[in-house]
Amino acid sequence: MSRFFIGMPVFNGEAYISEALDSIIRQSFCDWQLLMADNCSTDGTEIKLIERYVSRDPRIKYGRHSSNIGAVNNFFLIITPAIKHVNLMRHKQPLDD
User: Fold this and answer.
1) In 10 A of CB 42, how many CB atoms?
2) Closest by alpha carbon to 84, among 9, 29, 5?
3) If one looks up domain 4-83 in CATH, what number appears?
4) pLDDT of 64-92, one tens digit each?
């Protein structure tokens, strides 16, 4: 299991997606997994992602919706799998030793 999760909702990101993905891949920290949800892009996002990234790097997981589900729903679809690895606490609630 990866120690660091990155969520990336995508819609018509062809112009910028390569720059974003290359910046993630270049990081010195390598124990990550990228979860991407394509919100039914109508540009070349899907082809660019699959051909250049998903097929070459097993840390990148990609899914594409068959119809646009809206930006908010796409965001929550990405964040939901990672939420079990997040621990929130109040500032007035110290951790026990």
Assistant:
1) 10
2) 5
3) 3.90.550.10
4) 999 999 999 999 888 887 666 666 666 66
